[in-house]
Amino acid sequence: MEIKKPIYWHQGLFLQPQHFQLTDLHARFRLKPFLEVGLPYFWGIGELNVADSALATGVFEVIASHVLFKDGTYLEYPGNAVLKPRSFAAAWKDPNKPFPVYFGIKKLSLSEPNVTVVRDLQDGADLNTRCVTTHEAEEFRDIHSDGPVAEVKSLNYVIRILWEDELEKLTDYEVIPVAVLERNGDAIRLSPRFIPPSYTLGGAPALFNLVKEIRDDVSGRAHQLEQYKSPREMQKAEFDASYMVFLLALRTLNRYTPLLHHYIESPQAHPWDVYGVLRQMVGELSSFSERCNMLGEFADGTLALPPYEHHDLGHCLFAAQSLISQLLNEISVGPEFLVFLEPRDGYLGADLPKQFFAGRNRFYLVLRSESEPDALVDSFQTSAKLAAIDDLPTLVRRALPGVELMHMPVAPQGLPRRAYSFYFRVETVSESWEQVEKDGNIALDWPDAPADLKAELVVLRR
Hints:
Helix content is 29%, strand content 25%. By secondary structure, the chain is α+β, with helices and mostly antiparallel strands. The chain has three domains: 31-191, no CATH class; 204-331, no CATH class; 337-461, no CATH class. Strand 15 and strand 16 form a beta hairpin. Helix 7 runs parallel beside helix 8 (313-331). InterPro entries: T6SS_TssK. It holds the Pfam family T6SS_VasE.
């Protein structure tokens, strides 16, 4: 309902309730261009806290919520609204299917009353009315002067919890989807894949956490590619031009990672803006893919990146997360895992996680030192030993070899080619390496190691 024309206020006007009612509605009409043009999709959930314990008993109960409906009605519960818990046990007829839940508020009507007077506010929580008020008025003091206290009756909006099969008959209601219930074994939970329409990034925890996951993934890949960033190397004649693609990819990630951090630090940002950044990122990352174009469309016509969908944020955002991950995997040809060997009791050692040995991977020992290259390699191959920590003392005492290492004149494919770095392939077919896998640790003994030595064990996927 819109009141487009302002009230004509004049001397001698006999005030009626309609004058103030129409003034309120006209004030809302003046906000129309800001709501419709100022920011797209400025409606939805700003906060939603559901009682998990009530779900187990078959009841959808809201502890707190902020809701902005499409007509501009802003509700806070508790605050200016009443909301009654509702049982879904009888309505959820097929437990194998998800169960959508909606909020509804009755539209403003010109043909019938919009307010119902009740004895207690909770008595009106399930009435078919837009607002309720009580017989008893509230007392308000004069906030500008010492005038007498006045009794004022205020309105509370009625938010109703609705099921999907009821929506067809409720054409006189503004409706917003707020949750999807699903069964996880014997438990009932809110679906982690459903994100309600939200007007802020922090409006739904699932929305905020998903964007945070994307940010962390992109940040991790950017850190992974930073090993290819070496301005001094680029100025040398022997710089490997094949690594230029990694530098270009790093530039793309370095452009968008700070922006994603900025949005996460500002949870009041709108998801429409965030999704626009994700689409831009997909467009740039598609430059490194032969399968996908700038709009997220594959050669067979499959659209992997849908347009923004405010009604179903989960659909478009999960799709963006999946596509970004695929595109990153096409360019991040770096180590799957990397462990630095730290100084211990006379040797360099490290503990190795179990996932270090999962799958058929290739292992490399990378040494970094500014020592003379030929002398360093000769010394290492002559006196260094690599083995499990508990095996190392026995190998040193008996002058036995440890894990076999083969010198690589150039960096293996997938590792950056850097100055003062030396690469050795780890041979994994030996009893010594089996002991490393069993113990989950490794140690390097090198009596003649240079003082500036740094060592790391890296894993590359085959």
